[in-house]
Amino acid sequence: MTDETRGESRPGTRARAGWTREQARRIERTDDTVAPIVYPPATDQVPEVHIWDTWFLRERDGTLASVDGYRVCFSLTAPSDLLPGKRHDVATIRCFYSEDGRTWHNAGPVFEAALGQRQWAGSALYDDDGSVYLYYTAAGEEGSEDLTYTQRIVGASGGRIDTDDGFDLSGPWTHHELLTPDGDRYEREEQSRGMIYTFRDPWFFEDPATGETWLLFEANTPVPEGSDACGGDAALQEFNGSVGLARSPTGDPLEWELEDPLLDAVGVNQELERPHVVYRDGLYYLFVSSHLHTFAPGLDGFDALYGFVAEELRGEYVPLNDSGLVATNPANAPFQSYSWMAFPHGEEVLVQSFFNYYDFDGETLDEIAHLPESEQMRRFGGSLGPTLRLDVEGSRTRILGALGHWHIPLDGEELPPTDRELIRRGNRADTGSYGARTGTE
Ligand code: FRU
């Protein structure tokens, strides 16, 4: 990064880097950060289930795996006749596969019996010997009659993919509890004073520069009562999202030790969801998703993908585009997408997310629950949305356009020219709204 593109890094509360109120105050929608509007696809590829948080099977070096020509992904799912707002309570991980990166097939639930009352987001490793590891969040305590919100990070080993006769992923799986919060660097549920408690969303990362093996996750930084963080203002302190980190000393995918968080956002935001890294041009791009309603009082953010860049994995992260905002929804469809996941493809960084509530421009997501149930169902996308295309340079990013719903290009697949490129080449009239056209290519 040149000095011009470097931006500013600030220390966190327990982490080397923090997202500050001053930085977050600069969040605003711009042409470069607003995604095209998303319309429902002509056909729902997997109508039998709601689909939300999704992650791809990746190799150790982070590339999206291609298993005998198949792209493979995992998603949180629930039956599609369930009211969408209830889906988190019954979330089940299903596997999907595709030969062309556009048409996806449902391979069904991955586990017969997993840890937790339900399973929340994670990541998946296709190891060098062909074994599959699935990291996930065990939410709630199995055995308890009531729905509980404890969260543990789990790794399931034993998965194999067989493609002799179509696609088949099977176990037997063994579920290993890998990490629980230590109460010191990572808040435990009983310490939480905030609106939402988090210790979840494990994401595997092998650092290409050092060969070290890491697990990132979403967490909260403990801020004891009476602490002078945020000038002692308890109303701000309870917004304490962090990006947690654990290290595998040997590279063993099932052996992890907690480390200090990578970044925290005390006084800024309660939830830094689904953290992940894209390594590019020798830089570490750390991305998280967050919600409008999890920003601390006095800050106006959006449901959006936020990002930071540093020169080392445990470095001094600088917010992308000065504020951290990378991609958000248009003002007239503020909840159309959520849970973004970025991955490199050729010169670009692509970003996948799920199609959330559309045809809805309420102030907050809570208003959805006040609509008649038939409207809550109608307005929920519940599938993978269009894939966004990003140009990333130093600490600047720019949305270039979008690919179709569920379009995850195959290795080396050439992408069509973006509207911006066509305008530049003079092949397309500049309507001044490249992004407002459609959500598809
Ligand atoms: C983001 C998220 C994840 C969590 C999941 C639960 O969409 O909050 O952090 O694992 O949803 O459904």
List keywords for this structure.
9-stranded mixed sheet, 441 residues, 5 helices, mainly beta, Tachylectin-2, Chain A, globular, 24 strands, disordered C terminus, binds beta-D-fructofuranose
Describe the structure in your own words.
The chain has one domain (17-426): Tachylectin-2, Chain A. The protein has helices at residues 3-6, 21-24, 234-237, 373-378, 419-425; strands spanning 17-18, 49-59, 71-79, 92-98, 105-109, 118-126, 131-139, 151-162, 168-170, 174-179, 200-206, 213-220, 240-248, 257-266, 273-280, 283-290, 304-310, 318-319, 325-328, 337-345, 348-357, 380-384, 386-393, 396-405. It is built from five helices and 24 strands. It is mostly beta strands and 441 residues long. The strands form four sheets. Strands 2, 3, 4, 5, 6, 7, 8, 9 and 10 form a nine-stranded mixed beta sheet that branches. A five-stranded mixed beta sheet has the order 1-14-13-12-11, with no helix packed on it. Bound molecules: beta-D-fructofuranose. Beta-D-fructofuranose (FRU) binds next to strand 2, strand 6, strand 11, strand 15 and strand 20. Beta-D-fructofuranose is lined by residues 52-53, 76, 88, 91, 120-121, 137, 200-201, 218, 273-274, 338-339.
